[in-house]
């Protein structure tokens, strides 16, 4: 005896802009689901800096203990490991959500791969990054790579965060 089953797809979201893969995104009536959005370059040459910014939009209050986590190829990137790994992570809170910026100084081939940002109350977002061979020899740096990133990093973070915030707000108005 055959039974007819009806499947209703409520909403499908692409895994990434370049992908043909889709995943269902279930929603219940009236439930607001926050989503993480990653902005940044999908390609960098060896020796170039890599910046990825994650924004989690939300119109409901975010708990103060809710932080954005970054993963590289399924491995959690620790906030206090920047001297060893060459990455730095910063988080910013705004009335409309949270921002987190992952900065990698002088990207190397091992930095290539899948980057995911997630937050407890939001759907995660993933981006795939390629590190291409350098077109030009990388100049020797005069700074010690173990030094913490300075004021220029904070200014760049502030500017990129503001730009991402304005882009997201503008897209919500349309």
From TrEMBL:
Gene3D superfamilies with a match to the protein in the record: Immunoglobulins
InterPro entries referenced in this protein's UniProt entry, alphabetically: Ig-like_dom, Ig-like_dom_sf, Ig-like_fold, Ig_sub, Ig_sub2, Zig-8
Domain Ig-like: 26-128
CDD domains per UniProt: Ig (cd00096)
The gene coding this protein: RvY_14581
Protein name as catalogued: Ig-like domain-containing protein
Organism expressing this protein natively: Ramazzottius varieornatus (Water bear)
A GO CC term assigned to this protein in UniProt: neuron projection membrane
One record GO biological process: synapse organization
PANTHER family: DEFECTIVE PROBOSCIS EXTENSION RESPONSE 4-RELATED, DEFECTIVE PROBOSCIS EXTENSION RESPONSE DPR -RELATED
Pfam families: Ig_3
